[in-house]
Amino acid sequence: MTTKDPVLQVKGLKVSFFTDDGEVPAVDDIDFYVKEGEVLGIVGESGCGKSVTSLSVMGLIPSPPGKITGGEIKLNGEELTTASEKRMRKIRGNDVAMIFQEPMTSLNPLFTIGSQLMDATLIHKKGDKKQAKKRAIEMLKLVGLGRAEELMNEYPHQLSGGMRQRVMIAMAMVCDPKLLIADEPTTALDVTIQAQILKLMKRLNEELNTAIMLITHDLGVVAETCERVVVMYAGKVVENGLAVDIFKDPQHPYTRGLIQSVPDMRYKKQRLYSIPGNVPRPGSIKKGCRFAARCEFAFERCLQEDPPLYKTAEGHSTRCFLFDDTKEDTLHDKDTTIATS
Amino acid sequence: MLQYIMRRLLQLIPVLLGMTFVVFLIIRAIPGDPAVVILGQQATEEAVAALRETLGLNNPWYVQYFEYLKNLFTGDLGQSIRTRTPVNEEIWPYLAATFELSMFAIIIAVFIGVNAGIISAWFQNSWFDYTAMILALVGVSIPIFWLGLMMQYQFSLQWDWFPTTGREDVRNPVNAITNLYIFDTIIQGRFDQTLDVLRHLAMPGIALATIPMAIIARMTRSSMLEVMKSDYIRTARAKGEKMFWVVYRHSLKNAVIPVLTVIGLQTGLLLGGAILTETIFGLPGIGRYIYEAISSRDYPVIQSGILVVAFIFVMINLIVDILYSIIDPRIRYS
Ligand SMILES: Nc1ncnc2c1ncn2[C@@H]1O[C@H](COP(=O)(O)OP(=O)(O)OP(=O)(O)O)[C@@H](O)[C@H]1O
Ligand SMILES: [Mg+2]
């Protein structure tokens, strides 16, 4: 594999939940990739399908009611959607690891930190308890937890939220995975701890060359840590590109809204922008662009057709008819006037 | 850990005092003169006076209670009026029979109940789940005496698989040492007798185990379902752990905590159920002992019998609490 081949390649991923109200598509036709050693940000409001996407990669969609109904997920070229459960078990925790939003509940309250840290080694690596223990202590030190030996015998309830998230990260990194999926790892933490955890992940990314798929609804987090960004809305990718490009030139009206709603510390008195309306329930929009109802630029076509992803620049694409160059569109001109308000 | 157990033992003191006091009142609360009630109307004046003296009824109540406690401490449970034997000497064989039956029943109930609950939760909505839960529903609503009689009819009278009544084969009696027959026969190397004792235990044991088994299965299932939805179970799966271990290691340890409470309660109730079962299957247990004492108004025996049963209740509770603390570090360290 050459250095910048994708570790993870997701194409046309569709996941539905089969509930009493019928099939609810939680994510629909998702495309993205994560290259070796990079940090990819996946951003979007609550309920847009970020967790469903990441759980699909792990093969951990709660099933029933969830099911991958289409698309492919390739990890180092290996197709995962059709892989056996046995094969997936070998991959989980070994090639791909995941950390979750709630450090308070993600650790088992009845097992010591040490035992939980040793699990992955004992599952995936040939080795005895002694080696697993050595590795666990090493990992605790790596994530910046002092008194590692003592921590091994302590229980989760004796640790603070920030420490627990560090333990989660240590646990995920035990088998030196190629890809780390972090599903809103800092959302439940207070701001100073948040910054420390992000810094830690960035450091691990650089030192160990682990690719990270960082899921968040906080653009501030993305700006600090990610090279590339995928913006999701109601189960679809609406924009993706390099982080610098997206912050400099946000194209999709939804992305613009998101960026405007990030508080800017330079202007203390400024009123925060918020996108009018709410995220539609998955499956509730049958026709047209899913953002149309909340979009100030929506026109007739947006209500009728679902826009494709338009490539707007090198490595930058947007799912919006405003960027349809093939047709003459008067509204296109408006585009230049909406950058700031 | 040790500290926790010490604290629990200290907390036991007021409970035991309260318990003994209530039991102490059983005789004193008899309306009229307890001695007359016990001996009957035709008793002579002298006999009544003598009994009042032995029971210490002439002293103020706190002196009586203190005497009573003092006697308990020395293991003196009073004397049976009917047999004129000290209760502590004659109660043990009965207690042992009940203990053996209850243990046998609770082991069956826990082993089958917990595993059925786990598998039902693991394969939720499968045919196993449906069958187990329907059986559990039937199980909780079955009257023990009916089940007992049906089993006797079918397995004993019709098919002759198991003996109808009794603890042992009277033609080949167990040489009692501790009166726990399984134990006794094993240490004497009389395995033929062990088998015979087990055959005698089978039907009453299963009849007695049915209700607790059903309740334990349902509790385990719902507790497991709850735990298996939790974040830390998702974490365990994300490590690549085998489902078997996710269920039996990571989930079960958490799910078993509420189940333990139920097991403790059911073990207590089992003693109550044992009285009925012992009657049906003609077993010489504590239930029969108390029952006979009640029919002959043998108050010292009634009193001691109740005290022993209540004491076992308290001890089961203590054991459950200690098990909690072994399983859950949050209890241990608080
Ligand atoms: N177990 C489930 N049963 C039914 N529907 C589900 C289930 N899990 C997720 N969904 C659906 O999938 C959609 C996307 O959920 P997901 O958890 O991926 O959102 P998210 O982007 O991670 O949001 P958040 O920021 O709140 O974590 C939800 O709107 C919900 O309708
Ligand atoms: Mg989520």
TrEMBL record, chain A:
It comes from the Bacteria. PANTHER family: DIPEPTIDE TRANSPORT ATP-BINDING PROTEIN DPPD, OLIGOPEPTIDE TRANSPORT ATP-BINDING PROTEIN APPD. One of its GO terms (molecular function) is ATP hydrolysis activity. Keywords: ATP-binding, Cell membrane, Membrane, Nucleotide-binding, Transport. Residues 10-259 form the ABC transporter domain. CDD domains: ABC_NikE_OppD_transporters. One of its GO terms (cellular component) is plasma membrane. It comes from Jeotgalibacillus proteolyticus. This is Peptide ABC transporter ATP-binding protein. Pfam families: ABC_tran, oligo_HPY. InterPro entries: AAA+_ATPase, ABC_Ni/Peptide_Import, ABC_transporter-like_ATP-bd, ABC_transporter-like_CS, Oligopep_ABC_C, P-loop_NTPase. It is a peripheral membrane protein.
Automatic annotation (TrEMBL), chain B:
One of its GO terms (cellular component) is plasma membrane. Pfam families: BPD_transp_1, BPD_transp_1_N. Keywords: Cell membrane, Membrane, Transmembrane, Transmembrane helix, Transport. InterPro entries: BPD_transp_1_N, MetI-like, MetI-like_sf. Belongs to the binding-protein-dependent transport system permease family. PANTHER family: DIPEPTIDE TRANSPORT SYSTEM PERMEASE PROTEIN DPPB-RELATED (PTHR43163:SF6). This is Peptide ABC transporter permease. It comes from Jeotgalibacillus proteolyticus.
